[in-house]
C-alpha cells in the first residue's frame, strides 16, 4: 500500500506538472519531492499525517532554497549539509513527526544538489515543490487513504489469509512422503512465522484502529487464540508423523533435518487418517469462508462436526498422537469461531450443536469479563515497565531511559555527522560534482541501525545492490534513449519495487534505487558509464565512512546491544511466566496477552540485532551457531509462554478450566531460573553468583496419586506439557550463557 500510494503521488505530480509545461529538470524535482513527502510520513492518525505534511512543505522549501543558495559556496554549503544531517538524525528522538521532518529536510537538500538547482531556478522550484506536496496530500487523503481502521481491516484480512495458507501446509504435511517431508515442514515453519508476524502487526494497530479498549482486548485475544491453536495443530501433526519430537514450529534452526517416516495412510491408523484428511480440508473451508457472508447450513454443519472433537467421547479410535490431532482440530475450529464472532459480530445460532453452543457460551463469558474487567489488586508486571515519555523503542534497552550521549538518537547524530564529514572530504577527491552520493550512503546505513555490526551488514548490502543496479542502469539507458515518458514509466515501476522489496531484502531495494537513479540521470542528460561507475565508488566510500564513524565515535558493539536486548527478553519472559502461573494457581487476573506480545516484540528486536552475528559473511562460525541456538531456545520458550498465557486467560470464566494451586511450585522454579539467567546477562562478572535449578520433572513435582496423572478436570492437564517444555528450554539456556546447572539428574519427564 505504501508503494501504491507513493507511485500514485508521483504519477499525479508528473501529470499536473506536464500539463503546466514544466521542464524535465523540474519534473524530476517534482517526482522526487512527491516521493519523499509520501514515504517519509508514517504517523497512524490522519490528523497527525496532515499536520506533518503541512509542516513538511516549509521544511522542503527551506532545504531546497539553502541548497540552491549555497551551491557555489563549498565550505558554507558543506558545513550546512553536515548541520542538517545532525539535525535530521537527532530529530528522531521526537517521534514519527520529528523523523519525517528530518528526513524531508535532508532529502530535499540532496534533491537540490542532484538537479543542480541555483538561485535563478528557485521560483519555479518552489512552485514545483508546492504542487508535488498538494498531489501527495490528495493521494494520501483521497485516492489511497490510510486510516487506522482501514489498515487494521487489511491486516485482519491478511491474518485470515495467512491462517488459510497455514492449514493448507498442514494438509500437505499429512500426505507428504518421506522424501517430501523436509520441504513441507520448511514451508509449514515459514507460514507459521508469517502468521505470527501478521498477529504482531495487528497488535501494533489495535489501539488506534478500534473504537474502545474492550474491542481491542477482544480482538487481541481472538487473534492470539487462533495463532496458538494453529501452531499447536502443526506441532501435533508433525508428532503424529512420527518425526523427532517437536516443541514448536517457528523456533527450529533453519534447514533442520526432519527424520524420514512412513506415510500415515499406511500406518495402523490408515482408515482414521482418511477421516483426518477430510476434517483438515473442512477446517480449511471453515477458515477460508470465515470472512464471507455465507451463513448457510453447510458451513454450520462443518463447524459443528469439528467442534465436536473437543469432547473426548467424540474422538475416533486411534493412537494417542492421532487423537491429539483431532483434539487440535477441535480447538482450531473453536478459535476460528471466536475470530469470526469478534470480527463479524453475532450469527445465526439455530443450527448449533451442543459443542458449538458451549463454545459460544464460553466466548460470551469472556466478552463479559472484558467489558467489566476487575481492577487488579496489585500493579501488573506490564505496569512496572511504563515510562514517563515515549521515545523510540531502542532508547531504553532493558527498560533503561538513556540521556545525553547515551541516548541512541544523540549518539547516531554524532556518528553520522562525523561519517558525513569523512564522506564529503573523500567524495570531493573522487568527484567535485557527485560527492553527495557518498554522504547519502553514509546517511542511509545509519537509518534503523543500532550497532556497529548492523551498520556493517547494511553497508555491505547497499554496496551489493548498487553494483547490480549500475549494471541494470547501463542496459536501461540504452533501452530508453530519448523517450522521456518511457523513462518516467520505468521510474514508477522501480519506485513500487523499492517499497515492495524493502521488507524482504535491503540489497534488492538498493538495486531498484540505483536503477531508478540511472534513469533519472538519463532524463537530466547527465548519464554516462563513468557516472554509474562513480556511483559505485561513492557508495563504497560512504559505506566505509559510516563504518569508520560507527567504530570510532561512541561505538555500540553488537555484543553489548544483543546483551541488552537479551536481558529485556528474559525479563519479559519472566513477567509472562510468573503472571500466567499465578493466575493458573488461582491468583489475580493480569493482562497476560499484552505481556506476551511485549515478549514477542522484544524477541523480534533481539532477532534483528543478532543478524550481523548470524549473517553468512560472518567469519565466526562457532558464535553463529551459538547465537542461533540461543534464539531458537528463546523462541521455544516464548511459544510455550504464549500458550500458558492464553490458557490462563480462560481460568476466571471457563467451565472446563479451573485453577490448580500446585502449579505455583513449578512456576517458582522456572521464575528463579530466568532471574539467574537475566542477572548473568546483565552482569558478565556475576559468574558463579547463581545457578539454575534442575532435577525433578514438572510432572513429578505435581504428582499426587498412584497413577501420577493429574485430574483431567483441572488446568494442570492442559498446561503440564507447556510448563515442562518451558522448564527444559530455560535450563537449556544456561550452558551457552555460562551459568551452572544444579541438581542435573536423569529426568522422568512425561512426553504427553
Overall average residue pLDDT: 81
In terms of quaternary structure, the protein is single chain
Range of helix content: 55-70%
Indicate the proportion of strand residues.
under 5%
Radius of gyration: 29 Å
Distance between the termini: 45 Å
SSE-based structural type: mainly alpha
Helix segment tally: 28
Strand order of the largest sheet: 1-2
Task: Please tell me what the overall shape is.
Answer: globular
Topology as H/E string? HHHHHHHHHHHHHHHHHHHHHHHHHEHHHE
Tally of strands:
2
Provide a brief overview of the structure:
The protein has 752 residues and is mainly α. It contains 28 helices and two strands.
Which structural traits does this protein have?
752 residues, mainly alpha, two-stranded parallel ribbon, 28 helices, 2 strands
Structure explained in plain terms:
The structure is a single chain. The chain has 752 residues and is mostly helical. 70% of the residues lie in helices and 1% in strands. The protein contains 28 helices and two strands. The protein has helices at residues 2-19, 24-39, 46-69, 74-90, 95-115, 122-143, 148-175, 181-209, 213-240, 270-288, 297-307, 320-344, 354-371, 381-384, 408-430, 436-445, 452-480, 484-501, 506-523, 529-552, 558-584, 592-609, 611-614, 621-648, 663-682, 698-701, 716-732, 734-737; strands spanning 691-693, 740-742. It has a two-stranded parallel ribbon with strand order 1-2. The longest helix has 29 residues, at 181-209.
